[in-house]
Amino acid sequence: DLLHTVFQLLDDGRNNDVTYLEQKYISFLDVPLSHSGSMSFVPPDTMVRRQNSPTEQKFTVIGQQVTLEKGSEIKHISLEKLPPLLIFVESMRAVMVGDVKRLQKHFTVTARGGTDDWTLELLPRDKQMKALIEKVQFNGRQGIVTGIKTYEVDGDWSDMQLTPVAAGHVR
After folding, report:
1. Which pLDDT belongs to residue 171?
2. Distance of alpha carbon 39 from alpha carbon 1, whole angstroms
């Protein structure tokens, strides 16, 4: 089936280094907020998101520990204290390594399209997550994730477009 085929394609590691452009649509704002930067993933559990614009900040997840760096300010948070964030991070990790079983632990997952243009729709299973997130959509082609859309229950949503970069070029 398409779901397992997509996850087999994702398992090859081509999503490990990307640049991103994110548009966040918030109901009380007339124009979306734009963020851009880069993300990298080192299996099995390290993710780094560097935001370059509009402000510089770095968000690092290693295992269950989150570090947020903004200027000279550094904060450390345990994912265990923020269950919805833990579930979201776990979904990213599961998609990046092609682990459908790990993803299905936290989400009901459906796949649409074909291998050249697919969408994975994730509906949260967790009660706390359901109170925040309506659904998450991963879009892609073959084994490459090209976008992530997150729809919140309050009507706000974000659209993150991803572009793979050559290994070693993400900063």
Report:
1. 46
2. 29
**Amino acid identity, position 110:** T
- Asked if 86 contacts 80 with a C-beta cutoff of 8 angstroms, the reply is yes
Kindly calculate the radius of gyration of the chain based on its CA atoms and give it in whole angstroms. Answer: 16
Pairing type for strands 46-53 and 33-42 reads antiparallel
Please state the pTM of the whole predicted model.
0.90
Q: Listing from the earlier edge strand, what are the strands of the sheet with 157-164?
A: 73-78, 65-70, 57-62, 46-53, 33-42, 17-25, 157-164, 144-152, 133-141, 117-124, 107-114
Tell me the per-residue pLDDT of 1-32, one tens digit each, with 9 for 90 and over: 999 999 999 877 666 899 999 999 999 999 99
In angstroms, the CA 137 to CA 150 distance is 6
Task: Tell me if 40 sits within 8 A of 15, measured CB to CB.
Answer: no
pLDDT at 88: 83
Give Cβ neighbours of residue 83 (< 8 Å, ≥ 6 apart).
126, 128, 129
Split at pLDDT 50, 70, 90, the class of 62 is very high
Contact between residue 121 and residue 140 where contact means Cβ atoms under 8 Å apart: no
Please tell me the distance from the alpha carbon of residue 56 to that of residue 14, in angstroms, as a whole number.
26
